[in-house]
Specification:
The protein folds into two domains: about 1-205, no CATH class; about 210-330, no CATH class. The chain has a three-stranded antiparallel beta sheet with strand order 1-2-3. A three-stranded antiparallel beta sheet has the order 4-5-6. A two-stranded antiparallel sheet has the order 7-8. α2 (about 35-95) packs antiparallel against α3 (about 100-135) and α8 (about 230-240) packs across α9 (about 255-260). The radius of gyration is 41 Å and the shape is rod-shaped. It has 13 helices and eight strands. The chain has about 325 residues and is α+β, with helices and mostly antiparallel strands.
C-alpha cells in the first residue's frame, strides 16, 4: 500500500491506498484506509509490547550488525590474500624466465609490478576499512540495550522526535502490516521482527460529516433547555454538565444557535410567543402605558416577563394569561 497525506483541520493525516492493480492494469483502487486511527493503535501496541520485544529485537539487530562487519572484514581480507597470491605468482613467472629472452622478461616484470601495485592498493583499502570500523564500533552491552528499551516510551512520546525518526524505529521493530478494510472494522495483522505477530480489530474512522454531526443527546438537551433559557445560558449549562463539541471545544452561544437553526428547533422567542407572551409594544397597548412605565414596572417586578433573546429582548405575560391558556387548550 502507498501512503499519502491530507489536511484534517490543522494537521496532516496519513491515508493508505492499495493501488497496485490500478497502476499495473488500470483497474479501480482496491481499498483506501484512513491511517490516523491505524497509526494510533499501532503506537499503543508498540508501547505495550516494548519491554520484551525491544530487548529481543535490539539484541538481534546488534548481532546482525556485528555479523555484517565480520563478513565485510572477511571480504576485504580475502581481497588482500588474492592480490598477494597473484603477486607471488607473477614473481615466480618472472624469476623462471630465460634472461636471454628479454622481451618476455620485460613483460613479466611489468606484470609483476602491476600485481604489486594491486596488492598495495588492496592492503590500503583493508586498513582503511578496519580504521573506519574501529572508529564506528561502540561496545554495546546488554545493559545498554535494556536501558534504551526502558527509554523508548519517553522517546516515542517526545514531540521533538520527527516522524522520519519514528518511522526508522518502527522499521527496526515491525516487519510488515497487512490491512483489510471491512464495512465497519479495519483488521490489522502486524508481524514483528522478533518472530511475534498480533492482530488488531479497530473501528473504521468515520467520515468528517459524521464526526461533526451533533449527538442526539445534545440536540435533546438543547431542545429541553430552550424552553427556559437563551443560547448563552444553554451553552453554560452544557459545559457545566461536561458536554463538548465534536472537536473537544466548549459550547458557546454561537454553537447553540447553530444547533437550533440546523435541527429546526424552536427558539426561546418562538416558544414564548406560542404561549401568548406579548412584545413590549403589545404590553404597552394592553396596559395603556408608555415604554418608560412598562420598564419601571419591570424593574419593580410588578409584571411577569422573560428574556427572549441575546439582545435583551423581553416578552411579557398578558394579564389574561389563564384565559389565553384555556383558549389554546380548548
Amino acid at each position: 500500500m502507498t501512503v499519502g497525506y491530507r489536511q484534517n483541520c490543522s494537521k496532516l493525516v496519513p491515508v493508505y491506498t492499495c493501488q497496485k492493480d490500478r497502476i499495473e492494469n488500470g483497474a479501480k483502487v482496491c481499498q483506501t484506509v484512513a491511517g490516523e486511527k491505524v497509526d494510533e493503535e499501532i503506537s499503543k501496541l508498540l508501547l505495550e509490547m516494548l519491554n520484551p520485544l525491544a530487548i529481543k529485537v535490539a539484541l538481534e539487530v546488534q548481532n546482525e550488525l556485528s555479523q555484517r562487519k565480520l563478513e565485510a572484514d572477511k571480504f576485504y581480507r580475502q581481497q588482500v590474500e588474492r592480490a598477494r597470491y597473484e603477486a607471488e605468482l607473477a614473481k615466480k613467472r618472472y624469476m623462471l624466465v630465460d634472461p636471454q629472452n628479454r622481451l618476455v622478461a620485460t613483460e613479466l616484470e611489468a606484470a609483476w609490478n602491476q600485481k604489486l601495485r594491486q596488492l598495495e592498493k588492496a592492503q590500503q583499502e583493508y586498513e582503511k576499512k578496519k580504521r573506519k570500523d574501529l572508529k564506528e564500533v561502540r561496545q554495546t552491552t546488554k545493559a545498554d540495550i535494556i536501558r534504551v528499551a526502558s527509554d523508548f516510551p519517553k522517546l516515542w512520546s517526545n514531540p521533538g522526535v520527527s516522524y522520519r525518526e519514528k518511522k526508522r524505529m518502527i522499521r527496526l521493530l515491525i516487519g510488515d502490516v497487512t490491512v483489510k478494510n471491512g464495512d465497519k472494522k479495519v483488521i490489522l495483522n502486524i508481524r514483528f521482527r522478533a518472530a511475534t505477530s498480533k492482530t488488531l480489530i479497530i473501528d473504521r474512522k468515520l467520515p468528517i460529516y459524521e464526526i461533526k454531526k451533533t449527538k442526539d443527546e445534545i440536540i435533546r438537551q438543547v431542545d429541553e433547555l430552550t424552553e427556559n433559557h437563551i443560547p448563552s445560558e444553554i451553552a453554560a449549562t452544557l459545559n457545566k454538565q461536561g458536554y463538548r463539541l465534536w472537536n473537544g471545544n466548549i459550547f458557546k452561544k454561537k454553537s447553540v444557535k447553530y444547533i437550533i437553526r440546523t435541527y429546526g428547533l424552536k427558539s426561546r422567542y418562538e416558544r414564548l410567543r406560542e404561549k401568548g407572551y406579548l412584545t413590549l409594544r403589545e404590553k404597552m397597548v394592553e396596559l395603556n402605558s408608555s415604554q418608560k412605565q412598562i420598564m419601571q414596572m419591570r424593574n419593580e417586578d410588578k409584571i411577569v416577563f422573560y428574556r427572549a433573546t441575546e439582545k435583551n429582548e423581553y416578552l411579557y405575560e398578558p394579564q389574561n394569561m389563564n384565559k389565553y391558556l384555556a383558549k389554546t387548550q380548548s
